[in-house]
Specification:
Blueprint lengths: L6 H15 L76 E5 L6 E9 L3 E10 L3 E9 L10 E6 L4 E6 L2 E11 L2 E9 L10 E6 L4 E6 L2 E8 L5 E7 L10 E4 L3 E8 L2 E7 L5 E6 L10 E4 L11 E6 L2 E10 L2 E9 L10 E2 L8 E9 L2 E9 L7 E8 L9 E2 L9 E8 L3 E8 L9 E7 L1
Length: 450
């Protein structure tokens, strides 16, 4: 599963700048882009959050984002959609969610991600800062469908939250950048064959200047894709066919490939990436990464301005789904496209959230046993200083359940998606703010289940 990194630390850094110059805090998800061609733009009107929790949260019993009703294969590149001016966004009911269970309590995690394996096992990784020791990467495991969690175990040191996790069967894979400074860093990989109880010693995948990383597994095939920014940004991929024991030499996907995410289906590997700030392409390999087919454009209305991790990709058997944040004018909302023929053709993008109302962004999507599940951040105010994590699912990839609130922690400020999966029940991971601090996110990672 594609994961998300750096949103929390970006919130803190931007808040510090805004406090110094005397402005209100910007949208909490407005992390700066790492691509030279991309830059984050602060909203023209910003409202500083108060220290007190909101006194009222809008609700509406009949709220739901429109569900796609049909799909077709595009013969030309998708055309950007013109969206109406945003209006107020009510929050859907939480329904039958249990929790939240706190994964961290430090108040300063930079990143969190989730994988689910087997019938009841979930593994979370998160990056937390340790005073005078820098940022450290930890994992925690649940073997009862997310109800309880084992103590944290340290996996390694890191910088900037660039980390990723994947799993299949009883295998769990973790990749992360360990950086001593901006030009000397190593991409590490560790593998667990016992469902995340223990991990092997690290394997070095790449060295140099660090960037975004994504990882995926299916059976014995493990694929890692990363952005190598030393001497100019280049996206590279490396594949293991022996369960992570060894990796083939990396392949370059070119300089015009940013914030790439990877997924592994049955006999196919997909890599989706931004070509620029709005266009998203996908490439596939049918021979475990030895060769890669020509790129297919999937979206022309995407945006990575809100967060550099604006894409999410998942695959199983011959099906795959890409979720992304779309933008038209002042509107931002979540869309998806899918393939049912191993990436030979893809459907025209369809909406997962409404283009009306306040922004929705940061989608994460997961496919298991024929059911596709998605979470995303839904803003309650224009600056996104108050938001919740919305959840939807589909058993046919066309019609979707109404949106539900999956983030239940209190007080209610912003909430960022961290991961979604299924292990005997739906498990949602998210980061949520519970205070204000100019130097750390004043947030923690939580899990809800149903």
């Amino acid at each position: 599963m594609a994961v998300r990194a750096g949103a929390a630390i970006a919130r803190a850094a931007i808040l510090l700048v805004m406090l110094v110059i005397g402005c209100g805090a910007p949208a909490p998800s407005a992390a700066p882009s790492l691509s030279p061609a991309t830059s984050a733009t602060a909203p023209s009107t910003m409202v500083a959050p108060t220290d007190a929790p909101p006194t009222a949260v809008p609700t509406a019993s009949d709220w739901s984002a429109p569900s796609p009703t049909a799909e077709s294969t595009p013969t030309t590149a998708p055309t950007p959609t013109t969206a109406p001016t945003p209006s107020a966004t009510p929050e859907p009911p939480a329904s039958a969610w249990d929790g939240p269970v706190a994964i961290t309590t430090s108040g300063s995690p930079d990143f969190a991600a989730l994988t689910t394996i087997g019938s009841s096992t979930a593994v979370v990784i998160y990056v937390d800062s340790v005073e005078e020791e820098g940022a450290r990467l930890y994992s925690r495991r649940s073997t009862d469908s997310g109800a309880t969690w084992e103590p944290a175990q340290w996996l390694g040191s890191t910088y900037g939250g660039f980390s990723a996790i994947a799993g299949s069967g009883t295998d769990v894979d973790v990749a992360w950048w360990e950086a001593y400074d901006f030009s000397a860093s190593t991409l590490h990989y560790r593998h667990s064959s016992d469902g995340g109880a223990t991990f092997s010693a690290p394997i070095d995948i790449a060295t140099g200047d660090y960037g975004w990383v994504s990882i995926a597994r299916r059976g014995d095939v493990v694929a890692i894709v990363w952005e190598h920014v030393e001497g100019g940004s280049v996206t590279r991929a490396s594949v293991s066919t022996d369960g992570g024991t060894s990796f083939a030499s990396s392949t370059s996907l070119g300089a015009a490939a940013h914030y790439a995410v990877v997924a592994v289906g049955e006999g196919v590997i997909y890599i989706a990436y931004f070509v620029d700030t709005t266009h998203v392409n996908v490439r596939r390999s049918l021979d475990n990464g030895t060769t890669w087919a020509s790129a297919i454009e999937l979206a022309a209305d995407a945006t990575n301005a809100a967060n550099f991790a604006a894409l999410s990709l998942t695959a199983a058997a011959s099906h795959a789904y890409l979720a992304y944040a779309a933008k038209s004018g002042e509107s931002e909302w979540v869309r998806y496209t899918r393939t049912i023929d191993k990436g030979a053709t893809w459907t025209t993008p369809a909406d997962l959230s409404s283009p009306s109302g306040h922004r929705s962004l940061l989608p994460l999507i997961h496919l298991k046993a024929g059911v596709v599940r998605v979470i995303y951040e839904e803003c309650l105010v224009g600056t996104c200083n108050r938001s919740f994590v919305a959840y939807r699912e589909s058993s046919d990839g066309i019609t979707w359940t109404p949106a539900e609130t999956a983030s239940l922690s209190s007080p209610r400020r912003w909430a960022n998606p961290g991961g979604v999966g299924y292990a005997g029940g739906v498990i949602v991971l998210y980061l949520a703010a519970h205070g204000r601090d100019a130097y750390v996110c004043a947030c923690d990672a939580y899990v809800t289940t149903k």
